[in-house]
Amino acid sequence: MNLSPEVVAAYKKLMTEPKENGLDFQPLQELFEETKVATAKHLLYEQYLTKINKTKDQLPKVFFYIIMDEMYQQKKDEDGCLGYCAVCRQ
Question: Are the beta carbons of 84 and 44 closer than 8 angstroms?
């Protein structure tokens, strides 16, 4: 897997501007709401995949984490897992 800046930027563009790239799901920033309390990273990743109807093979978690690192504050959740200060919108 190539983690070059260009590949990460391409994934970010697809995740934050999906409609402009011919994809039929909401932008990442519309699916999550910033909070003061952290939610475990892996839980948000799983919720994101469900919301956009994709599989882990279609969106490796490393790209999700890199992009979320840029968008949301990180801290430990109530179980001590590293998380993002965000929740998935219903």
Answer: yes
Give the whole-angstrom CA distance, residue 63 versus residue 69: 10
Under 8 Å CB-to-CB from 2, ≥6 apart: which residues? Answer: none
Beta strand extents in the chain (DSSP E only): 32-40, 74-76, 82-88
The pTM (predicted TM-score) of the whole model is 0.92
Sign of CA dihedral 82, 79, 72, 7: positive
Give the tens place of pLDDT for each residue, 15-54.
999 999 999 999 999 999 999 999 999 999 999 999 999 9
Which tokens sit at 41? 């990273």
Tell me the C-alpha distance between 50 and 21, whole Å: 20
